[in-house]
Every structure is written in structure tokens, then in C-alpha cells.
């Protein structure tokens, strides 16, 4: 319904048209994937990546944000134990390198 309204109306943004539907469709599955794991994680990551791609190609903010949120939340939960098991100096070194890259890219 939101996609049809977005297609018919020129001045309607993607967040009012698609935001509620994407949130209600994707976030419960994301929360379940974070809690249970299993094959649901792959489905959430795939759908999230597809939404990021569609949002980027069509220049729509709602699919881009919903897909990115699902991918980031699921990835953090899945990668958390791996990062926690690394020696602390490696974790701080990677975090520092990422911060330097962000500062250097912004300047």
C-alpha cells in the first residue's frame, strides 16, 4: 500500500509511505534472529542487504535505513563473541585504525 502511494504521489517521502511497513515486517524477524540464531540470521541478513541495495539504487531512505539497521544489529550479535575472544590490543588497534580512517576520510 505504501509503495503504491509513493508511486502515485510525487511529494510523499519514503519514510511516511514505507517506514511503518518495513519496520513491522523486518524488525520482529531481526529481534528473533538476534535471540535464536539459526537460518533466520541468513534470511535477515539477505533481506537487509537487498533493502540496502534497493534503497541505494532508488534513492529511498526508508528501505536503506531499515535494511542497514537489520544488518548492523544482526552482525553485532553474531560477531560479538568473536570480538570478545580476541586479545584486547587487537580490538583497540582495529578500533583505532577505523577511527583514523574515518577522520582522514572526513578531512
Structural write-up:
The chain is mostly helical. It is built from five helices and no strands.
Largest sheet: none
Cα-based radius of gyration, to the nearest Å: 17 Å
Global mean pLDDT: 87
Low-confidence stretches: none
Topology (SSEs and partners):
Blueprint: H1 2-8, H2 14-36, H3 39-58, H4 61-85, H5 88-106
Helix pairs in contact: 1-2, 2-3, 2-4, 3-4
Q: What features would you highlight for this structure?
A:
single chain; 107 residues; mainly alpha; flat
Characterize this entry briefly.
The protein is mainly alpha-helical and 107 residues long. It has five helices and no strands.
Amino acid at each position: 500500500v505504501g509503495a503504491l502511494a509513493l508511486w502515485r504521489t510525487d511529494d510523499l517521502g519514503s519514510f511516511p509511505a514505507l517506514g511503518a511497513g518495513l519496520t513491522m515486517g523486518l524488525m520482529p524477524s531481526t529481534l528473533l534472529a538476534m535471540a535464536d540464531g539459526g537460518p533466520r540470521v541468513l534470511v535477515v541478513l539477505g533481506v537487509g542487504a537487498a533493502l540496502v541495495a534497493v534503497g541505494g539504487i532508488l534513492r529511498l531512505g526508508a528501505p536503506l535505513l531499515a535494511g542497514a539497521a537489520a544488518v548492523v544489529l544482526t552482525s553485532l550479535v553474531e560477531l560479538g563473541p568473536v570480538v570478545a575472544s580476541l586479545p584486547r590490543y587487537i580490538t583497540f588497534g582495529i578500533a583505532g585504525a577505523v577511527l583514523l580512517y574515518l577522520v582522514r576520510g572526513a578531512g
